[in-house]
């Protein structure tokens, strides 16, 4: 996993984390995606993640290159799925994945997900669930590359989202 460190974001890093997420929001817009174009996520969302102990950063050479919320617990939107999850036990949820624009094409998002897998296993959680918009090509590429399994559709604020799960230990 290179010399990358995956750790909880600090309150003092809110501005950096938010700037990375803003870059991702703008990239989604340029790509023609509808995801993240309605005021979510916003700076308060990221602040809440960090305060709740769910905001994580990927750091290389003392530079924050990516941000994600990793939540260990029940995701209410995942309680109903048009389809079926692979497992019924505990799981980690990954939301708000964003990488710094300076790291584009360097495998940062892949490394972030590898770290999430390690963290999940360390916490005794053997499954990771994520969802993404139908038009988020970069995230759809990552879930395919990392062998996540398409499980069906979930709904966020009435909008359908593609839901995926990866079982880490069978």
TrEMBL record:
PROSITE patterns: GNAT. Pfam families: Acetyltransf_1 (PF00583). It comes from the Bacteria. Gene3D superfamilies: 3.40.630.30. Residues 4-170 form the N-acetyltransferase domain. InterPro entries: Acyl_CoA_acyltransferase, GNAT_dom. This is GNAT family N-acetyltransferase. It comes from Undibacterium seohonense. The lineage of its organism: Bacteria, Pseudomonadati, Pseudomonadota, Betaproteobacteria, Burkholderiales.
